[in-house]
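Our consortium's second objective concerns turning raw sequence data into structural hypotheses that experimental partners can test. To show how far this objective has progressed, the report includes one record in full. It was chosen at random from the queue rather than selected for favorable results. The single chain below, 182 residues long, was entered without modification.
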Amino acid sequence: MVTRMVFASLLIIGTVGCIYLQESATLKNNEVIAASPQEDISESIPEKPLKLNITLRRVYLDGEISEEKVSETVWALEDFWAKYEAWQLVDMSDEMVLFELKVDDISPLLKVNGFFGVSNDGTLSIYNGNPQQEDIIQSFFQIDIKKLEGNKHLELQQGIPVKTKEDYSDVLETMKHYSIDK
């Protein structure tokens, strides 16, 4: 919040400063000369909006990170900050702003094609597709395969689909009981 206020203040100060300079002086052949009171320079003050390249980074529970890039024309800073109120400001420059949002859900990739499985060394992992394809998205902890009930081990070998946040949490909680590093 403080960073947003500083950013807004700097933009306002910069804009006011530019207007003041334009009103008090004119640039001719790269030399600053005083503006005469008779000159109407208000027509030469551009009313340009601020153009920003915005990166929206989403961080999901399963560790997946997605980024969306948008260009935005900002006419009013108050409207701009209100639009991104839920987002955390991470970085900014004159033309770029990076926002991050921690999403309390699993990623779209997991919902569509995520499966819990177990690797050959007994590590609980999430796979992109069934575990036989060995395309690991994220690994968690080693489980004691010998302690697993027969059907649980078979389920993990075939792949347990992860369609919701609840599926994700339930499987992790269940498998923690079989963890080697309790």
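The partners drew two points from this record. Helices lie at 2-24, 77-83, 108-113, 150-158, 165-176. Residues 1-46 have pLDDT under 50 and may be disordered. Both points have been shared with the crystallography group to help prioritize constructs.
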